[in-house]
Amino acid sequence: MLPLFRLARGPLTSLRLLPLRACSHTPMDRPVESSIRAKLSRTLAPTHLEVRNESHLHAVPAGSESHFRVLVVSPSFEGLPLVQCHRLVNEALREELAGSVHALSIQAKTPQQWSSDPSLAKSPPCMGGSKHDPGMRLRSDRE
Amino acid sequence: MNHLFRLSAGLLRSGTAGLYRRRPVPEGHVSLVVARLFSSEPENSELGQLIKKDKVVVFIKGTPAQPMCGFSNAVVQILRMHGVDDYASYNVLEDQDLRQGVKNFSNWPTIPQVYFNGEFVGGCDILLQMHQNGDLVEELKKLGIHSALLDANKDEQKK
């Protein structure tokens, strides 16, 4: 697809064509990611939210929405043990986790925890598990 | 001790063998569980019994000798770093009934899953966080397991 161009602002002494920023994916292209964002926003009222599709890091077809990492910063987590924080996230995404989401990495922090350590963890390297995973093959057979 | 946790967490990401000495996990601890997972009382079900048989029980993809998933491997590596080599490990890739059964039992949607003394601890993220903030050393101590990282820390302090 040829890049689209726009006229550069500036003196009319010369016209310059600058490429438009390449069209980013629309939420329509990423329905699962959009759903994850919407549900976490609605149920946990996060002060900071990051949702990353990490499917490309795993042995799954291009364009998959199967592996995600979420960072949720919310006062909803105050006073809760870590496992309970994660359970809140799991519950919010129950439908997605019963569907196409195969793996979900969670970082759940209170606003205070986030301000003292504002870092996003990285996922461990894939060991090709999805290739050996009959569960994944069954899903792709159904799709 | 914090620098040891941060360093070791970085090694998990790089996938290298790391500073710890590898100890082979006895293959006898890798078991297959045939489905009879549910009874009218979940605590007395086969899974309910399984998670209590050993102090440390993990449900992973693959085996400790050959993990088949990066997250499962992270759990195996963390336990190894702490010198925990006597634990029960169940390969969910070999038994789809076990795989779904443990998710239902724990009410936890993903693998790996870790149990200490019959109590659900969490998955890879939680175990990693416990490892990084020092909680894992304390929890292992409650199980009567002395973390190898405590000895590593003492060696560091002697230098």
List the defining traits of the structure above:
heterodimer; A: 143 residues; alpha+beta; two-stranded antiparallel sheet; 5 helices; 18% strand; globular; disordered C terminus; B: 159 residues; alpha/beta; 5-stranded mixed beta sheet; 7 helices; 5 strands; 46% helix; Glutaredoxin-related protein 5 (chain B)
Textual characterization of the structure:
Chain A: Residues 108-143 are annotated as: Disordered. Chain A: This is BolA-like protein 1. Chain A: Residues 108-118 have a biased composition (Polar residues). The complex is a heterodimer of chains A (143) and B (159). By secondary structure, chain A is α+β, with helices and mostly antiparallel strands. Helices cover 31% and strands 18% of the residues of chain A. Chain A contains five helices and five strands; from the N terminus they run E-E-H-E-E-H-H-E-H-H. Chain A has helices spanning 31-44, 82-92, 94-98, 111-116, 134-142, and strands spanning 5-7, 17-19, 48-53, 67-73, 103-109. In chain A, strands 3-4-5 form a three-stranded mixed β-sheet. A two-stranded antiparallel ribbon of chain A has the order 1-2. With 159 residues, chain B is of the alpha/beta class. Chain B is built from seven helices and five strands; from the N terminus they run αβαβαβαββααα. Chain B has helices at residues 2-14, 46-53, 70-81, 96-106, 124-133, 135-142, 148-158, and strands at residues 30-31, 56-60, 88-91, 113-116, 119-122. In chain B, strand 4 and strand 5 (119-122) form a beta hairpin. In chain B, helix 1 packs antiparallel against helix 5. Chain B is globular. The two termini of chain B are 14 Å apart. Chains A and B meet through helix 2, helix 3 and strand 5 of A and helix 1, helix 3, strand 5 and helix 5 of B.
Number of strands of chain B: 5
* Strand order, largest beta sheet of chain B: 1-3-2-4-5
Q: What share of residues are in beta strands of chain A?
A: 15-25%
Biggest interface pair, counts: A-B, 26 and 31 residues
| End-to-end separation of chain A | 28 Å
- Overall, the morphology of chain B is globular
Please give the number of β-strands of chain A: 5
Protein name (chain B): Glutaredoxin-related protein 5
Pfam family, one (chain B): Glutaredoxin
Keywords (chain B): 2Fe-2S, Iron, Iron-sulfur, Metal-binding, Redox-active center
Organism (chain B): Huso huso
